[in-house]
Amino acid sequence: MSNRPEELIKKIYEEQGKINDVFLTACGGSLVDLYPGYYFINSESETMHSHWLTAREMTVSPSKFLKRGALVILCSHGGNTKETVEAARLAKERGAAIITMTHNPESICAQEDMNSVVYSWEDDTNERERPQGIVIRVLNELMKMQEPGYTKYEAVLDGLEKADGIVRAAVKKVQNRTWVFAEKYFDEPFLYIIGSGASYSQAYGFSICSLQEMQWMDCCYLHSGEYFHGPFECTDEDHLYILLMGTGKARVMDERALTFLKKYAKKYEVIDAVELGIDAIDESVNEYFCPMVFYAMTVAYRTGLQDKRRHPLDMRRYMGVVEY
Ligand SMILES: O=P(O)(O)OC[C@H]1O[C@](O)(CO)[C@@H](O)[C@@H]1O
């Protein structure tokens, strides 16, 4: 059973009353998509605290704030991931409200008591109907209901209308660059992916899902601010960096990383959301939409690598193959 996100959060708000804590939890790629919502609440809310954590961590070490007055947003693409299902059950037991997103209408996460939003995941699915868009839709409504001083509601709605067009244009724009990147770097022994703000999630996802899981490439993700607190000592002309440059207040950290890379590195790829058109969305909120653009970039770059490296994106040796 699927719910409309806006109606679901209204129903929850009527039942629960004031929300004090928003938890966002899942595993892997689904967890990545929840981070912008965490960042949004952390930046915008005057009445709520947000928490972003792995589903397993939520159950092995539950927060004292996981109780009535908490909203837990979960995502599981396949809908049956054990850790995520257990996190949803624990949240309900503790009296928290849950919203569960899944692509699989037959899954545990789509059952009636899961308050599910079943999303489509086709090439032409609009960004506002994908998990990152659904989370922002839910939280934008929640902010409007709970915080009379919230002024960004309309700007976010406008962003949700524009995001899909921006993402599609950006994918066309970088197509050639992804091929050139793959030609140059297909055999690279190690990569660093750097980002910050809401887009830090996409540095994480680019690394753990697109390159480690799907290409078996050694790499790690870095926060642009943290780059200067240790990792920059590895910088030289041999190491390869991909820098995701977002917008908003966090951008200064990405700019600082770029300045350093220009001076001391030789191999770096800059993916800049501004150059890719994100500023068509109001600047007060466009940072929350950069991760949609960056996710599409990870797909474009990993596809370029797949083709050049002849390593299918779907090939696994452990995940879903052996016991773990
Ligand atoms: O979104 P689901 O179905 O819970 O699956 C999570 C799994 O899928 C991935 O996101 C992608 O394969 C993994 O990172 C993770 O183990």
What is the element layout, followed by pairings?
Blueprint: H1 5-16, E1 21-26, H2 28-32, H3 35-44, E2 49-54, H4 55-60, E3 70-76, H5 82-93, E4 97-102, E5 116-118, H6 131-146, H7 153-185, E6 191-195, H8 200-215, E7 219-223, E8 240-245, H9 251-264, E9 267-272, H10 290-309
Parallel strand pairs: 1-2, 1-3, 3-4, 4-5, 6-7, 6-8, 8-9
Helix pairs in contact: 1-6, 3-6, 6-7, 7-10, 8-10
The chain binds 6-O-phosphono-beta-D-fructofuranose (F6P).
Residues 27-30, 76-78, 81, 84, 209, 213 line the site of 6-O-phosphono-beta-D-fructofuranose.
What does it look like?
By secondary structure, this protein is an alpha/beta fold. It has 2 domains: 143 residues, Glucose-6-phosphate isomerase like protein, domain 1 (Rossmann fold, 3-Layer(aba) Sandwich); 133 residues, Rossmann fold (3-Layer(aba) Sandwich). Helices cover 44% and strands 15% of the residues. The chain contains 10 helices and 9 strands. Helix 1 packs across helix 6, helix 7 packs parallel to helix 10 and helix 8 runs parallel beside helix 10. The longest helix has 33 residues. The two termini are 31 Å apart. The mean pLDDT is 98. This is SIS domain-containing protein. InterPro entries: Fructosamine_deglycase_FrlB, GlmS/FrlB_SIS, SIS_dom, SIS_dom_sf. It comes from Blautia celeris.
